[in-house]
Write a structure and sequence with these properties.
heterodimer, A: alpha/beta, Rossmann fold, Dimethylsulfoxide Reductase, domain 2, 6-stranded mixed β-sheet, 28 helices, 27 strands, B: mainly alpha, about 60% helix, elongated
Chain lengths: ~750, ~70
């Protein structure tokens, strides 16, 4: 980090890892006299394209007038948005006392936490550590719908969550994923580089996405049928002998059973369900299987379907049978970074008793990413990776969010009465928002740790101001997913009464008599501890390098096998079998469109201007996307009498929301895309309800009763549930007129 | 996989490992002779032009808590 002086004051320039979205680009940040003034691309040749306009808008976010700077205590009714300012010390004293009261009355399992490590970054596993020491298994996160659950399901098949070797691959398969210049930017750049090096790109997407426009093959799949296409590919690969026979023979179990299951999906059936012509299924399967190397990168689309577990397992199976696991240009099983103590170890899962683990909500019906299933991998994980708990992308020991909200609302199977939310706008982040509201209204204590007031924070008893990435030191390790360490340096000062999430848990632990488990007084001490295997302190690391990549090791499984009970890739999952589920992937049909509900509604769509439910108050970003839009095909618009720019109401059997209509030829007829996470920060004050949280939020639309969920994980079907549109007179009242003028 | 293919694969893997080690040298903040050489080579291949992209710009001044 360099510090100079100019006419305005002390200028500091540092390496930072951006946390405005989940991708973690390393950038450069500048501050003057402790205030961040600029965030720009990194000057390293390999990193300088890894930046989007959300990242360069960081100073607008970090210095925003509405940023929370002082702890707030509720003075009105819950959700009334009336507050008094109190000190951080007072807030923490009261929170500790009230949390202890809940635990004394209902037991530690009555305490639940929802958080997003993407936003808060510096928790260092200490939320789980705190909960494990106290005795609560009820930690939930948005990663249950996005990457974390994929990690947990991948582990069932081969014990780890692999990362694609984009730099050497010859074929990239994108299942609905659409990395572009301002969303998932580094992946976009790596795909472009792979393509420039001759790699083929196959895109599977109902619409003509940015990636689809330039793909070698584009398969316009009917949304929510990814698993069936994978069966179609396996059909071609097995019948034409395109699989890696040596690998299948030596390193997999269950190939014969898989073959039988695949035979249930002849290409005519696959064509009928997916809507993809048979010859294209065959051509794409051959392209994937015969490439010298190939990757199927993680995709948020497969994470959120009724067949999510089967579809994710089928991706894993395709990687394995085509011989693309842990090879050059394939998908790397990196393991724990030997230079950095992983969050998995800091979380202290071994301290949570079996009795408390058994109480984890949702593990009875949907165990895949809960302790119940993941503990079955403990011995194998220890054998292969040296430590039994591998919490990759934070997603491997979670409670089921829908089950937690049901318990919060109804007390069934037991009461949950204290709820903490950190860097997570919970109300809008999971399905069935109406239930989540009831759940939150039924709490004795809610604490929100945030950088802006959100609809969820408005429901809290205490709102604590958090810090942002330019205001703290960190070493990012992608939660053990990728194999590099990236430096992030503090260049600006956080609010005086603000805290990092680590500091929050540390201060709470010391007030609740478990301070001995939190021996590191500062974030830098935590970082020194985590870096200790490298022989460096944080200070030393920050002087030596801004990034360090692990040298790849190929076919690492030859040493100790795969991290599964059999030591092999389990095409037939022994764990799913033992848990009473189908040990092979399968297909379950989702509710279909009807005359009443003619659309396949596809929610969770990411807009370039925002990450999840954030940034709607940041004008430089909001101006790029002033209002939410429903994307539909011209044929559907004509049938429903809708024109581009009309406002419409989207109704499903669960709820209704409003947005502007955007008609696009690129859409597949019958499909309707809904952006994720919309609310209106400008709607505050008397008569406003939770900043319009129920007007346009996609979380209102999707049901989450057990029968609506993926069996193994309890994942909702966000990708293609029935809905209908009708024109309305205009936008909801209260939208910032400046935004409407931009339309 | 025949002998020739195995040989070619091993060669490619060795090259990939070497490239990672070279990349690590380019990430150095206190470059020594070999690090500087690696940076020079990388710059030659990847170019040194800054990322000048008007799409990344935002209007309006950036002041503290405007």
């Amino acid at each position: 980090m360099t510090a100079t002086f100019n006419s305005e004051g002390k200028v500091v320039i540092g390496d930072v890892v951006c946390t405005i979205c989940d991708i973690g680009c390393q950038l450069k940040a500048e501050s003057v006299d402790g205030v961040v003034t600029k965030v720009r691309p990194h000057d390293h040749p390999l990193l300088r394209k890894n930046v989007c306009y959300k990242g360069t808008a960081a100073p607008h976010i970090h210095n925003h007038a509405d940023r929370l700077r002082v702890p707030l205590k509720r003075v009105g009714e819950r959700g009334e948005d009336r507050w008094e300012e109190i000190s951080y010390e007072q807030a923490m004293d009261e929170i500790a006392e009230r949390l202890q009261k809940v635990i004394d009355q209902y037991g530690p399992e009555a305490f639940a936490v929802s958080t997003s490590g993407w936003n808060t970054q510096t928790t260092h596993g200490c939320d789980r550590r705190f909960m494990n020491v106290l005795g609560s298994p009820n930690w939930i996160s948005g990663v249950s719908l996005c990457a974390g659950n994929t990690a947990a399901v991948n582990k069932l098949t081969y014990g780890w969550f692999p990362f694609p070797d984009f730099g050497n691959t010859r074929c990239v398969v994108l299942f609905g994923h659409n990395p572009r210049k301002h969303s998932w930017t580094p992946i976009y750049n790596q795909i472009n580089a792979a393509r420039a090096g001759g790699a083929k790109v196959i895109v599977i997407d109902p619409r003509v996405s940015d990636q689809a426009e330039t793909a070698d093959l584009h398969l316009r799949i009917t949304s929510g049928t990814d698993a069936v296409l994978c069966f179609g590919w396996l059909n071609v690969i097995i019948n034409e002998g395109l699989y890696d026979k040596d690998f299948v023979e030596n390193w997999t179990v269950g190939f014969e059973e898989l073959k039988e299951r695949v035979a249930e999906f002849p290409l005519e059936r696959v064509e009928e369900i997916t809507g993809i012509p048979r010859d294209l299924i065959v051509e794409s399967a051959r392209m994937y299987a015969t490439a010298d190397s190939a990757v199927i990168p993680w995709t948020p689309i497969t994470d959120m379907q009724l067949n999510s577990t089967s579809a994710i397992r089928l991706h894993s199976i395709l990687r394995a049978v085509t011989g693309n696991l842990d090879v050059l240009g394939g998908e790397m099983l990196g393991g724990f970074n030997p230079d950095y103590i992983p969050e998995s170890k800091l979380q202290l899962h071994e301290l949570l008793s079996d009795e408390q683990k058994a109480k984890q909500l949702g593990s009875d019906l949907h165990p895949a990413y809960t302790y119940r299933a993941q503990e079955m991998l403990k011995e194998a994980t220890e054998r292969v990776h040296g430590y039994g708990y591998a919490d990759i992308v934070m997603g491997c020991y979670m409670a089921n969010p829908s089950a937690v909200f049901r318990a919060m609302e109804s007390g069934d199977p037991y009461p949950v009465k204290a709820f903490f939310t950190l860097g997570n706008n919970t109300l809008l982040s999971y399905p069935n928002q109406h239930r989540i509201l009831k759940a939150l209204m039924n709490q004795d204590l809610i604490v929100a740790h945030e950088i802006f007031m959100t609809p969820t924070a408005m429901l809290a008893d205490y709102v604590l101001p958090g810090d942002v990435f330019t205001e703290r030191n960190h070493i990012a390790d992608s939660w053990s997913w990728s194999t590099r360490l990236s430096l992030s340096q503090k260049v600006a000062e956080p609010p005086t009464e603000g805290s990092s999430t680590y500091q929050f848990w540390y201060d709470l632990a010391h007030r609740m008599g478990i301070g001995e488990y939190f021996p590191w007084d500062t974030l830098e001490e935590v970082l020194d501890y985590r870096l200790s295997p490298s022989g460096m302190s944080f200070d030393q690391f920050s002087k030596v390098a801004h990034m360090r990549a692990q040298v790849p090791e190929y076919r690492s499984y030859e040493k100790a096998g795969f991290g599964t009970p059999s030591g092999k890739v389990e095409l037939y999952s022994s764990i799913l079998d033992e848990l009473g589920f189908d040990p092979l992937p399968y297909y379950r049909e989702a509710p279909q469109p009807s005359t009443d509900y003619p659309y396949r509604v596809f929610t969770g769509v990411r807009e370039d201007s925002f990450f999840q439910t954030g940034q709607r108050q940041i004008k430089v970003l909001r101006k790029r996307t002033p209002v939410p839009r429903f994307f539909i095909h011209p044929e559907d618009a004509e049938r429903d009498g809708l024109s581009d720019g009309d406002w419409a109401s989207l109704e499903t059997e669960t709820g209704q929301v409003q947005a502007m209509v955007a008609i696009q030829e690129s859409m597949k007829p019958g499909h309707l895309r809904v952006p994720h996470g919309w609310w209106y920060p400008e709607m505050r004050g008397e008569g406003q309800e939770l900043s319009g949280a129920f007007l346009s939020s996609d979380a209102v639309l999707c049901p989450d009763e057990p029968e609506d969920l993926d069996h193994e994980q309890g994942i909702p079907h966000f990708k293609g549930f029935p809905g209908r549109l009708r024109r309305i007179d205009g936008p909801p009242a209260g939208i910032d007129p400046e935004m409407l003028d931009l339309l | 996989m025949n002998k020739e293919e195995i040989k070619a694969r091993k060669k490619a893997e060795r090259r990939s490992k070497m490239m990672t080690r070279l990349a690590n040298r380019t990430f150095s903040k206190d470059p020594k002779f070999l690090d500087r050489l690696a940076i020079k080579n990388l710059t030659k291949r990847a170019g040194s032009a800054p990322n000048d992209d008007p799409e990344l710009d935002h209007d309006g001044p950036i002041k503290a808590f405007e």
